[in-house]
Amino acid sequence: MGHPFGPNRSLAKVAALAEAQQPWAAVLGCADSRVPLEILFDAGFGDLFVVRVAGNVAATEQIGSLEYAVSVLGTPLVMVLGHSGCGAVTAALSDAPTPGQIPALLRQIEASIPEGCDNLDRAIEHNVEHQLFRLLDQSPLIKEKVEQGELALHGAVVDLSTGQVRLLDGLPSSRS
After folding, report:
1. Confidence class of residue 10 from pLDDT cuts 50, 70 and 90?
2. Per-residue pLDDT tens for 66-102?
3. Architecture of the 11-167 domain
């Protein structure tokens, strides 16, 4: 931890990837600028297929992107990664009005938070778990790959103050 190896970060690697990519993982992460996924996982060119949106929401476009990684690129691992102090989850917990298209995004996060939950850390975990469910519920392709053992699907939360990534306990077994 704290000592990057910097793999796959050469011009030769860029040239080698010009024709095709085979990332070892696809990550649905938050758009927050404090969570640069390639740096966080010490990854280089071609290692990660990254999909980012505020609140790491698995909406139609994000699911389609992850399906591309899984079905076309053969990526064997998909992770939904939340993070401490998430502004989108904080906003979803709040009753404060928001402008533009932000309410549509927040509704998707609000659906993940159990009634009465006002703990941000737990709400972040609930959101990650909910987005995992959405991937399974909304993508027969992803669900089939998981059931056939061809795809690992994991949720995790990164602590912004330490950079530590904590895996959540497997796929949630229920929506409670």
Report:
1. low
2. 999 999 999 999 999 999 999 999 999 998 999 999 9
3. 3-Layer(aba) Sandwich (3.40)
The two tokens of residue 28 are 């649905």
Sorted by where each begins, the domain ranges of the chain are 11-167
Which contacts (CB < 8 Å, 24+ apart) does range 157-162 have? 157/81, 157/82, 157/83, 157/84, 157/124, 157/125, 157/128, 158/35, 158/40, 158/81, 158/82, 158/83, 158/84, 159/83, 159/84, 160/34, 160/35, 160/83, 160/84, 160/85, 161/84
pLDDT for res 42: 87
Determine the angle formed by the axes of helices 140-147 and 60-67, rounding to 10 degrees: 40
61 beta partners: none
Q: Which residues pair with 83 in a beta bridge?
A: 158
Burial of 129 (0-12, 13-18, 19+ CB in 10 A): buried
What amino acid occupies position 115? E
Please answer whether residues 54 and 87 qualify as being in contact, where contact means their C-beta atoms are separated by less than 8 angstroms. Answer: yes
Both tokens assigned to 51: 């999909």
Q: What is the DSSP pairing of strand 152-158 with strand 165-167?
A: antiparallel
